[in-house]
Amino acid sequence: MRESLIAVLLGVFVSQHSWGAEHSLTLSEDTWINGRVPNAIYGEVDSLHTHNWQPKYSLLRFDTSSISGQTVARATLKLFVRDVRNSGSVTLHTILTPWDEDNTSWNTRPSFKTSESASFQVGVGDTGNIIEIDVTNVVQSWASGDQENWGLLTSTLSNILLLLDSKENSAGVPATIDVSTGPSAETVMNLESIPYIIDAPGLYTLDRNWDLEVDNDEQFSFIRINSDKVIVDMRGYRLRMSGTVPVTGLDINASGVLIHNGSINISHTISCDGSAIAGMGNDIRVLDMLIFGHSECPGIGGVRLSGIEHRVIRVNTAHSLCDPMLEDCKIDRGGSIQVGDHALVKDNNLFCENSDCLVVGSNSSVINNHVSQSILVGSGNLVVNNVAAEIEATGTGNVIENNW
């Protein structure tokens, strides 16, 4: 269930970010080389040959510019089998030195790893079909720069002849590599030492509840997100944070950040200032969170985001869902949500004492929220199906309808 949720949430980023995205890598160079005719060059022919007798190798190089520097979650090589004789195994080798299709023959062939990077089985029944091979490790090495991308070479020890379409075959189906980029590995946050700094893209998780306290002379943030393209999946755990100064639970100074699936309690601050989640950046998303403030500080416990294109969905700041660890919790206390322009604020239950419980900028959608106090919006907003004590617009061009 958690994995499927993460997959859905990653999809949210596809239209606006290069991470969590799908890429199709196309051929930039391809040829085959013939041990029987060692000086022959086949860079312009419409098929690529792999055979064990007087060996024939196919060479494939793909354009990886679209994934440079990214994390490769999955990479799948797709080969259309134009023809195959007999059945057997084909090995893929990583090419280590430069080559180009117009000048490469058996005698001028590049060096390559003798060990396999991947392998696949092929038989007569595969003719006319696409075979898929996992090449995640080698493509990740190209994307990270650990291995220069000179492509892949096919070889076989089996008594087969495999024919693939080259990119020069106008009626063919040349090879491609389908790549999914995104955070493939996770980092479990250890909050023994605070502030915890996130300074690299990826997936960050919790594996336990944390009760954190700070006694400091100036404003303090417990978790600081300084890198774009970060997902914080709290895995249903709780962060309970308190201090004698204004405190922020998660302080975001980045764009393309997702916070979801947990609870944050901000309590016992003498100054009655601070936020559970605060951010300066674009496309910050907060989903499925329970947020609790201090009973004597109605402004504590909210979500405050500046920037554009935020998504605050299913955030529940209601103290009626009190954390049993929070003894001074009251039903009518909670924090507000404040976001910038081009935001989506949907399906939230806000129980606030301060009058402006939900504050939204311009050109945003405010849908199906239950707010104990007022909703305040700027210009050009869609405000529908909300329950609020009052809805006030400071600008023009708003659509405000079906609210109670």
Radius of gyration: 28 Å
> Helix segment count?
2
Class based on secondary structure composition and strand pairing? mainly beta
Mean pLDDT: 83
General shape: elongated
The biggest beta sheet is recorded as: 12 strands, parallel
Number of domains: 2
Helix fraction bin: under 10%
Strand tally is: 33
Strand content: 35-45%
Distance between the termini: 35 Å
Residue stretches low in confidence (pLDDT < 50, at least 5 long) are: 1-19, 318-334
Explain what the structure shows:
This protein is mainly beta and 404 residues long. The chain folds into 2 domains: 22-181; 186-401. 5% of the residues lie in helices and 44% in strands. It has 2 helices and 33 strands. The chain has helices at residues 2-12, 136-144, and strands at 22-34, 47-51, 56-62, 72-85, 88-94, 118-122, 130-134, 152-155, 161-165, 176-181, 186-188, 196-198, 202-205, 210-214, 220-225, 230-233, 238-243, 247-252, 257-267, 274-280, 284-292, 303-306, 311-316, 337-338, 344-346, 349-350, 356-360, 365-367, 370-371, 374-377, 382-384, 390-393, 399-401. The strands form 4 sheets. Strands 11, 13, 14, 16, 17, 19, 21, 23, 25, 28, 31 and 33 form a 12-stranded parallel sheet that branches. Strands 1, 2, 3, 4, 5, 6, 7, 8, 9 and 10 form a 10-stranded antiparallel sheet that branches.
List keywords for this structure.
404 residues, 2 helices, mainly beta, 10-stranded antiparallel β-sheet, 12-stranded parallel β-sheet, 2 domains, disordered N terminus
